[in-house]
Write a structure and sequence with these properties.
The protein has about 625 residues and is of the alpha+beta class. Among the domains are: about 1-40 and about 530-630, Immunoglobulins (Immunoglobulin-like, Sandwich); about 290-425, Jelly Rolls (Sandwich), CATH 2.60.120. The chain has 7 helices and 36 strands. The strands form 8 sheets. Strands 3, 8, 9, 10, 12, 15, 17, 20, 21, 22, 23 and 26 form a 12-stranded antiparallel beta sheet that branches. Strands 29-28-30-36-35-32-33 form a 7-stranded mixed beta sheet, with helices on one face. The protein is flat and about 90 Å long.
């Protein structure tokens, strides 16, 4: 008994010395969670992903941020990701077997009205004008045959049918003959059938599957896919194919990211409806008339227009521009100043944009957004500067003479930081600020291909975008081995204060400010194990271990010498398959038999993260982690 007490005291003293002298800087902070006596060791910041220099003048801040983001994604692809599993014969891509069919083929379009809000085009073929939707739709053959006229424009319209086709193809591949091959003429699962090309899994069958779904969802007659029509079509499809007792679909409004993550990892198919939103902008100061124009200079900082705001914030400025050389992209910079600019003053904010200007006589309003809102003092004088960067005297700023804006006037740059006041002239401009109200500008369906809960990221099979694997031929993706699983960071909450959605995608490439997850359609298989295993790390726990022996309870796992990591994992449905053991996200051992354990004998002196992943026999899995301090 005396020897045991001495051993504990010695170990505790040694452990305390090591923690205070060496381990504390590595731990950084100890984060409490749960009850007051439960402490989890902080695992530190994300690892350094690479070194990037931003001192090249040709690398903008936006490009620099994108470079960092892409590098982060590349490094993170093998860390914490769950991908929908591949099926080698019919959905073979790895990682992530979810197909990535494309809507940009076979004239799957509609004609939408332009700014005048009126359809100017005349339908031809079996296209027809749908008055309730105010668009020309492709009709029964699903192919748009009408050419737009006036300010009408065409838009791709089949994202809904394509998103469902991805899911159906994946499930059909999962339950098809594992020894079958595309083109063998055999079909032992009826979710996807042969629609006229000789085999259900030939790539030529994909467009026919999509068009069959589009007709079932009324997409060809409405020119868009409403989620109620999608639900009804999926339910009817299961019944018509004799699979009503094997599948079900459920639609969830405003789902959380955690819920979607769980559904994806349960190997269910998830379709998300993304909403495109814009904050409502209100014009504060404006002068919109013009009867003349002047060249934009290359002198610093450009021509000026003074204004006096009535509100305390500025988010965007619009200016009226045209060009000597129309259609040539040109860099233009707009800045805001709180005093008449000189070489020693700094702007309150600047916005650089590459614009494609129209010809002289056809001026166009260009809106320059500021990354951060610019605070203003109502009643004080401010200045808008506009400068051309790419060319010399190509861009023209329109103005009105005589002076008609009472709260300011034009200033012409005659040299760097030298201005000639023009009290009889006003440039055409608008100052704008955002309210808390958001308006919906459109929507888009995507299919979930993978999820990363550790890094809060998600991967899509997107019917429109191919960012990770760009393709010049959209029909290439009709072959399920060719995919572009595009990856996005997830931001919890809503960027719009007036909307109570749960999460959004800050870097999704829509043409609106915000892309928000509105709804989810989850397609489930009813006849299989969909629950993850039950798992628990039983050793180590919050205690001190000396050469694999439990010594005494402690604030966190403190390991001296080798340690046997033990896991209790069970699955009462399909049964257990294996348990994987990771150290700092590196796979070290794979145990397929009970009791699940692995002896870690590495000599080290630092903080580590032990991670175990328990898999059942149908691919469901559960993860557990524990941070430890190990030396010797």
């Amino acid at each position: 008994m005396r020897n045991r007490s001495i051993e504990k005291a010695v170990v505790f003293a040694v452990a305390t010395i090591f923690i205070l002298v060496a381990a504390s800087p590595a731990i950084g902070s100890i984060i409490k969670s749960g009850t007051s006596n439960t402490i989890t060791i902080g695992y530190g910041d994300k690892p350094v992903l690479g070194t990037f220099s931003n001192n090249q003048p040709e690398l903008s801040s936006e490009e620099y941020a994108l470079k960092q983001k892409e590098a982060y994604r590349e490094v993170s692809l093998d860390k914490g990701w769950y991908w929908k599993p591949p099926y080698p014969n019919y959905a073979p891509h790895e990682p992530g077997g979810m197909p990535d069919f494309d809507q940009r083929q076979d004239a799957w379009k509609t004609i939408e009205p332009g700014e005048n809000g009126v359809i100017d085009s005349t339908p031809v073929g079996d296209d027809f004008y749908n008055p309730s939707e105010n668009r020309i739709v492709p009709g029964p053959n699903c192919h748009l045959e009408t050419d737009p006229i006036g300010d009408d424009y065409t838009a791709w319209a089949f994202c809904g049918p394509v998103a469902v086709a991805n899911c159906f193809w994946w499930f059909d591949s999962k339950y098809a003959d594992e020894n079958g091959t595309p083109g063998d003429g055999e079909d032992n699962f009826s979710l996807v059938e042969d629609y006229g090309v000789g085999d259900d899994h030939l790539s030529a069958n994909v467009p026919l599957l999509i068009e069959t779904l589009a007709k079932a969802m009324n997409t060809c007659n409405k020119g868009t896919t409403y989620i109620d029509d999608m639900q009804d079509a999926i339910d009817d499809w299961f019944i018509d194919t004799g699979l009503g007792d094997k599948f079900e679909e459920t639609t969830y409004d405003r789902p959380t990211f955690d819920f979607i993550e769980g559904e994806i990892e349960r190997s269910q198919d998830v379709i998300l409806l993304l909403g495109y939103y814009e904050r409502v902008k209100i014009v504060d100061q404006e002068q919109t008339l013009w009867n003349a124009y002047v060249d934009l200079p290359t002198w610093l900082p450009g021509h000026l227009q003074s204004f006096i705001p009535s509100v305390d914030v500025l988010d965007a400025v619009q200016v009226l521009l045209a060009a000597n050389n129309p259609g040539i992209p040109t860099d233009v910079e707009v800045c805001i100043w709180d005093t008449l600019p000189n070489s020693t003053t700094d702007p309150l904010g600047c916005s650089l944009m590459n614009i494609t200007p129209p010809p002289l006589g056809e001026p166009e309003w260009f809106q320059f957004h500021f990354d951060s809102s610019i605070p203003l003092t109502p009643g004080e004088e401010y200045f808008i500067s506009v400068k051309e960067l790419t060319m010399t005297y190509n861009i023209h700023w329109y103005y009105h003479e005589p002076d008609i804006y009472p709260n300011g006037m034009a200033w012409w740059a005659t040299a760097d930081w030298t201005f000639a006041p023009q009290p009889d002239k006003d440039f055409a401009f608008k100052t704008e600020y955002y309210t808390d109200e958001c308006i919906r500008k459109g929507g888009h369906y995507v299919t979930c291909a993978g999820v990363n809960s550790e890094e809060s990221m998600i991967a899509f099979s997107d019917p429109f975008w191919d960012i990770q694997n760009q393709s010049q031929d959209p029909t290439e993706h009709n072959d399920a081995q060719y995919v572009s699983h595009d990856i996005y960071e997830v931001e919890n909450g809503s960027p719009c204060p007036d909307l109570d959605y749960q999460w959004w995608l800050p870097d999704y490439p829509s043409y609106s400010q915000y892309t928000i997850v509105e709804q989810a359609v989850v397609i489930c298989s009813l006849e299989e194990d969909v629950d993850p295993p039950i798992k628990e790390i039983t050793k180590p726990i919050n205690a001190i271990y000396l050469f694999d022996r439990f010594i005494m309870p402690f604030l966190f796992p403190l390991i001296i010498g080798p340690i046997t990591i033990e896991v209790n994992a069970t699955d009462n449905q399909s049964g257990m398959n294996r348990v994987e053991f990771y150290i700092d996200d590196e796979l070290r051992h794979n145990d397929t038999t009970e009791p699940y354990s692995w002896k870690w004998i590495e000599s080290t002196f630092r903080i580590h993260m032990i991670k175990v992943i328990a898999y059942d026999n149908v691919g469901n899995f559960a993860t557990n982690r524990i941070g430890v301090l190990k030396f010797f």
